[in-house]
Amino acid sequence: MREADAMRETIRRQVLWNRLIAVGEEGAQVLLKTAFGAVTREAGDLSAGVYDRRGRMVAQAVTGTPGHVNTMAMAVGHFLDRFPVDTMQPGDVYLTNDPWQGTGHLFDFVMLTPVFAGARVVALVASTCHVIDIGGRGFTADAASVYEEGLWVPHMPLYEAGQLNRTLMALIERNVREPLQVRGDLMSLVSCNAASATRLGAMLREFGLDDIEALSDHIIDTSRASMQAALRALPQGRWQHSMRLDGHDEPVDLVASATLLDGHLAIDFTGTSGVSSRGINSPKCYTDAYVGYGVKCLVAPDIPNNAGSLAAVEVTAPADSIVNPAPPAPVTARHVIGQMLPDLVFGCLAPAVGGQVPAESAGSIWVLAMSGGRAAQAFNVMSIGIGGIGAGPQRDGLSCTAFPSGVGTIPVEVIEAAAPLLFLRREMAPGSAGAGRHRGGYAPVIEIAHRGDEAFRISAATFDRRRYPARGRSGGADGRVGVCRLSSGRVLEGKGVHVVPAGDALWIEAPGGGGWGDPRERDPVALAAELRDGLLTREDARRQYGVPIAEG
Prior knowledge:
Blueprint: H1 2-34, H2 38-41, E1 46-51, E2 57-60, H3 66-82, E3 93-96, H4 99-103, E4 108-117, E5 120-130, E6 156-160, E7 163-164, H5 166-174, H6 179-207, H7 213-232, E8 237-245, E9 252-261, E10 264-268, H8 284-299, H9 307-310, E11 313-316, H10 335-338, H11 341-353, E12 366-372, E13 379-385, H12 412-418, E14 421-428, E15 444-450, E16 456-459, E17 483-486, E18 497-500, E19 505-509, H13 524-532, H14 538-545
Parallel strand pairs: 10-11
Antiparallel strand pairs: 1-2, 1-5, 3-4, 3-6, 4-5, 6-7, 8-9, 9-10, 12-13, 12-16, 14-15, 15-19, 16-18, 17-19
Helix pairs in contact: 1-6, 3-8, 5-6, 8-11
């Protein structure tokens, strides 16, 4: 009987665990469907999750990005430092966009809502998304400090006992270029949390639970033990890896050592470049977020992401390094650095996991922040150029797919409806994938013009791998570097804001993913398909794969 009871309890806990994930996912879907900003509504740049009374992340939505979900996991603890659970009231909602204790940069807001049963807080739900504008210089890496980058909102109430903080909302609206969109996104975050809270309350009543504390202990303890077991199964030791990036004014060196000992992994960034004078610095919370994600992808992809699985990885970084800047360092384009870190972690752990490590990916997504016009005709829109993923030992890299961020693209039609821009092309760039037994992912080529033949601006804040490509692995070739130029030919250097003159067009080629394995071992059927589809030229086939292709 006791064995049967234990089995029933195990099943019950698993059902409850899955229900918590569904609670977070329902909130994420509400946010996805109600957000005003296209980068949230169309690209899925968001996250939602469930937390216990102690502020520990218990479950996360399936929809969302690792940078958001893992920084949000830390932000909730900072909320509780200022607003202890027992001081909260029904109808309270809190928000922040603090880069160091919340989101990584000012463009992302975190929203926290307590869930009540009677007069007692029984859990917390949180969500986050990217807003189109936060004032300051806009989406650019040109700022010399965070104070130039926009409005910095500390952890504070947006609603108190159901009453909107109109002063705070007025301050936000007055300091941004798109007040309607920003207010709409903040209200969507409120709705997201409300949906999650409603569903969580219904779950607690259905299963007769007073709170989720016991369930939370089970989930977190199980996940921690599973992650530790996965780490113990690997060879123990210490390894180091490095990566060079374009940087802003000068190249950036990312250096990391991984020490694996008795189920604990320590990642140390000693040797990494110092703080940049411009906005490509990655606050420690964002660095931690992507390091943890990289470890999980490689070591334990099947273990749920929560406070338990994250606790098995310790990240240290020198103060005032580009992966641990102190305020007021500029941080708008922090994903230039942060989204490269999983590949850096892969390189560190490659000796431990053998031949299972993929080649490097494009990494940082290319955010095409475009603006122009005057007064009523002014526009401020975002598109996204997503490069290729590195190939692995079993398959080709995915093309035009974001890793590690996970965001999608924004449909051309959405951008053209919101701004006087015309996409002349958006297609895969031939020859951009790194050659190999398994080739890297292809990158897109994007050409954009102004419909009225007027000038417009493009911020190249996140454009990296224009000099240093995604590297191949196990004999695979590097992916092709990215390109940002005018259609007339002039190359637009650096990460600044550039003007596309009237009558000209913007030409973007994002970086391709690295190849894996000897290109001469490539399946000839796959090569023939790429030749037929125009992704490889005959010259590419000869040069990259050593395959003579007869004309005709």
